[in-house]
Amino acid sequence: MSNKKSASLTTRIVIGMAAGIILGFILQMLMPNKSDFVIPLYIFDLSLRGLLVDGIFQVGGKVFVASLQMLVVPLVFVSLICGTCSLKDTSKLGRIGGKAIGLYLITTAIAISFAMFLALLVNPGEGVNMVANTTFESREAPSLAQVIIQMFPSNPFAAFANGNMLQVIVFALLFGIAIALSGKPGERIASLFEDLSTVIMRLVTILMNLAPYGVFCLLAGLFTDVSIETFGNLIQYFLVVFFALVLHATITYPVLLKLLTGLNPLIFLRKMRNTAIFAFSTSSSNATLPITMATTTKKMGVKNSIASFTVPLGATINMDGTAIMQGVATVFIAQVFNVDLTLTDYLLVILTATLASIGTAGVPGVGLIMLAMVLNQVGLPVEGIGLIIGVDRLLDMTRTAVNVTGDSMVTIIVGKSEKQFDEDVFYDMDAGQEQEEADSKVS
Q: Are 285 and 362 in contact (CB under 8 A)?
């Protein structure tokens, strides 16, 4: 049995990204200005553009993008139902659930609004002027009232077939609440959806393990015809997303905590340090969930009756980091492909990404699938994902740290408002240390 460890997914995606960019630039030198490079053989002439750019790279890239789009509807529908099924107690549904969901949605809306404002301020994709492989036709922007009306499906199956994600999200929320309130029959249906969620998460894992090859094909094809300046734009995109994530975690959350509870936000950030580092290393809110639970109860002083409800709910529906990425990526891709978005389009992105964050499962890589949905919602070319997917895996770790920080912040606010919070434990800097040391000895 070999003790050799395979490279991590992050490493393989970075290798695929680097190899694709390097090969793309090599091919660009061989085929400047979108020309062709023909290798004469004895029987026929071999066209590099026909074989690689328009052949292998195009097929591989389009299959990967299609796979991302394929998972959107089932992933959102099943994840949303599993999340709302956790609201089994009607009193919690009306009070604690309302507080938690309201706070999660508010922080997500703040996150994506700030991210889009920052992206429009910096303009990371300006001046690239790429052309999508698919044609883009501008459409008349619907009014905000029409958008709200169209959120509610008259035929949910038509919404599934057409990929109308706002309608799918609304139907999934209503269906999940109905399951939660249906007693024993609801429990049986909920169990089925939990199993479906496990299967779909396995499918996501399979797809993300193919991501390095998809990234390689997408970037090799793109950088064959893209100038070196585009890479500078990609660095700008990375820095804008990273800066927005850091500001959201260190300013938005502490300010909300101070305003709504009066607690010291610096102590909160200090006690979140180990949990955030663990989340950063795993890139998974779900994997970090036991650590987040222990932090909020043992170190922060929230009673388990609250934390056991709000933390798992947050791991399911609180994806502020993903929303920030989607906001910046939408602006970046629109600028790269020289597409002007209207004010209604921006409002639609905020609304879609905020609601979609509820259905974004807390596992690595799912944010890209949600991004495909957001891009489709405002008519932007999904091929743009190929530009950012290489650096997205690196940003995913930071996004997860932001998400679990938000989960803990909301848990404290709800716990204090419900008088299920021990302030002495919160201000005790040694709280939870004994248990942590005991756990480390056992492991």
A: yes
